[in-house]
Amino acid sequence: MANTIDHLYEYLADEEDARVCKDIPDSACRVVPGNFLAIFVTQVLTKIGDALASSKVVLPWLLSSVGAPAFFAGILVPIRESGSMLPQLFIGGYVRGFPVRKWFFVLGSAMQGIVVCTIAWVGLKFDGYAAGVLITALLIVFSLARGLCSVASKDVLGKTIPKTRRGLLAGYCSSAAGLVTICVGIGLLFSDSSDVDRYALLLLSAGLCWILATLTYARIREYPGAAEGGGNAFVAALSSLSLLRTDGVFRNFVVTRTLMMSSGLAAPYLVILAREAAGESSLLNLGFFIVAGGIAGFCSGVVWGKLADRSSRRVLLLTAALTSLICAAASGLAVSANSNVFWLILILFFLLSVTHEGVRLGRKTYLVDMASGNRRTEYVAVSNSVIGLLLLIIGLAGALVAQFSLALILAVFALLGFAAVITGWNLPEVQE
Fold first, then answer.
1. What is the CATH number of the domain that holds 188?
2. Phi, psi torsion values for 290, nearest 5 degrees
3. Cα gap 53→114, rounded to integer Å
4. Are 419 and 262 in contact (CB under 8 A)?
């Protein structure tokens, strides 16, 4: 079995003569193949869960089908993303006190699975305003659990997978999850029903994915690492914030990442445009968007991953420019007010999904490669908490602006992407 895992890893990582063990200790190097595959299976499962319970596509459709006010659909993405990021400054201070951190991911993944299954139950039992309130409250709990996973997973990745292989691993995960998502979306194309039972089935399947992920992640062989700086989470959080003042490279990364959040925030507005153009919110249209997102992940994941291992800085610059162009084009379609642009919007959604994969892989690889040990955990916690706060502010402000003009908010996102190119230009290479 061990030889099979080694051969599979050598094939996936394209290693023929000697194993790459850059930036990890020798003890961890010996178990890289098994950890690579365990993380691969875990991330594929969680990415499938993300696709089946997407706050950009699936949850808005569910809220619409149960008659919840449109306001709840508009705040899904900001709450989901910011709720997982804001507490990380304090979570990170606590997690740093533990030399082995994989169990925090296991706990967070189990919580996400349970919450998503509960959302499915709410969709079956409640409707209207009550459904909106309950689903939003559950999404907050989901986001907190997601934050726990985020802090732990990046640190475990940095301790168990060598440099020049981290982006590749993420790319393989995105492509594999994308393939499964395509199959799910195609299944929906053959069902033009708006039956809430089908939405519930999607969410139950997503919940099962997160629960299974706890079993695979628990198999990772993580060697104890540095545990200095743990203890009082509040004191550790205040101390970590000083990085924004003292570390110029990290500060510039946070600014650039903030400007690039438009790649994620713009997607729901494209969905809204498409629903207005189609004049309905059936499972058929939902299937088109799920397929588009799945194809985007399948086709682009490995490509972005390999590019990120070569230069995550260049990936950040390229995806920031693409985000700007796509949002500008979407803004133009919103101004035209043409009812026959559903397919054009779907194409833009696909391109934005491809670009967002690059944004995620680029920023994740760049952040993990910037430092090691507890400094990496601090970087993750500080950047995610700051981004979470700004995401909540910008997301809610964007939702208010979008009530009056979708074209305007998409134009603002285009400008943010262009600004990210300017600030990201000064980031140094971290793969060298």
1. 1.20.1250.20
2. -65, -40
3. 13
4. no
For residue 148, give the 3-state DSSP assignment. helix
Q: Mean of the pLDDT values across residues 88-109?
A: 76
Range of the domain at 111: 2-424
Q: For residues 266 and 431, what is the distance between their CA atoms, to the nearest angstrom?
A: 30
pLDDT at residue 161, as a whole number: 72
Residues in contact with 412: Cβ distance below 8 Å, sequence separation at least 6, in sequence order: 262, 398, 401
Count CB atoms within 10 A of the CB of residue 9.
Answer: 19
In single-letter form, the type of residue at position 301 comes to: G
Residue 341 per-residue DSSP state: -
Q: What does each C-alpha distance from 211 to 52, 184, 214 come to in angstroms?
A: 14, 19, 5
- Check residue 149 and give its pLDDT: 84
Look at residue 17 in the predicted model and tell me its pLDDT.
45
CA distances from 163 to 39, 110, 160 (A): 15, 29, 10
CA 310 to chain CA centroid, Å, is: 21
Which pLDDT tens digit goes with each residue over 344-353? 888 999 999 8
Query: Residue 68: inside a domain, yes or no?
Result: yes
